[in-house]
Fold this sequence. Notes:
By secondary structure, the chain is mainly alpha-helical. It has helices at residues 3-23, 25-31, 36-63, 68-88, 92-122, 129-154, 158-176, 194-197, 199-220, 222-228, 233-252, 254-260, 263-282, 287-294, 301-315, 321-349, 352-381. Helix 1 (3-23) packs parallel to helix 6, helix 5 packs antiparallel against helix 16 (321-349) and helix 9 runs antiparallel to helix 17.
Amino acid sequence: xxxxxxxxxxxxxxxxxxxxxxxxxxxxxxxxxxxxxxxxxxxxxxxxxxxxxxxxxxxxxxxxxxxxxxxxxxxxxxxxxxxxxxxxxxxxxxxxxxxxxxxxxxxxxxxxxxxxxxxxxxxxxxxxxxxxxxxxxxxxxxxxxxxxxxxxxxxxxxxxxxxxxxxxxxxxxxxxxxxxxxxxxxxxxxxxxxxxxxxxxxxxxxxxxxxxxxxxxxxxxxxxxxxxxxxxxxxxxxxxxxxxxxxxxxxxxxxxxxxxxxxxxxxxxxxxxxxxxxxxxxxxxxxxxxxxxxxxxxxxxxxxxxxxxxxxxxxxxxxxxxxxxxxxxxxxxxxxxxxxxxxxxxxxxxxxxxxxxxxxxxxxxxxxxxxxxxxxxxxxxx
Length: 382
């Protein structure tokens, strides 16, 4: 089995785990008796802890003190452990804590898994990241569709069962992957903090964070959006599957797209699609409209994720490469908890519409920051 095949399999199974963790968090925790505001806190706490730890994992990998494979196997093992705990415990509090731990581990995997493709590239292995990530979207949608259908019949315990099964499969794939010992790269000798050295990059990270905050609201509380239009958990699973299918063209074709357009330009385009998607969700009035809105995943999330990975790789100097991936991964993590916390609070206190209005504001502000950050990067490179 080639390195490309193993890397693709790793991305595929990881996004199945992600689908369980984030696609069904509200469904599962509501079923255990936890309200939306508390669910937002659970998701947010998992994001906050991961946000604190992500730069550390990036530094450990850049320095060569830990191999990326070791980190990934450890995190996947934590995913397995937390899901097993949820299967056997009945306490609402312990279930919430376990799910927060599950979300933390899943969040921490993202930048390390993405950065692994560039480690392979630097060691002479050709990795088509877009193809691998597109396969991940396909399996994400398949997992959501199957679990959505199963959960209607089997109940909420199908969620941790699916989480445990996919986590175990991820561990087995990771163990089979080759991992050369990376040479420790020397950090460049420029003065100042990493933020002062890459101001444009961190503006883009902030913009991506806001766009992904809306994405978090629409994903974590999709069941509420679906229910407001007359749907149920099975409709939610289908809606997630629709978005995953429409991700495929952008993901699979990204290596071709990236040759024609810069990563910065693609990030701006994705932010515009996020604005459109947020407005469509805001004015959705039926299940068909939700399915239509999910099609815009192709130009929003599906474009932003690979573009952000390439943008981080091209923006950071040697010795900062994995830290760049970690900080860009922080956008997904921070967006996850900002959206979950603000969305959960607003839905419970004011209603779904107010949460979707906030999500729209996030996307507009995100576009402005990304546009400004990419202009700033051009000035830095002169």
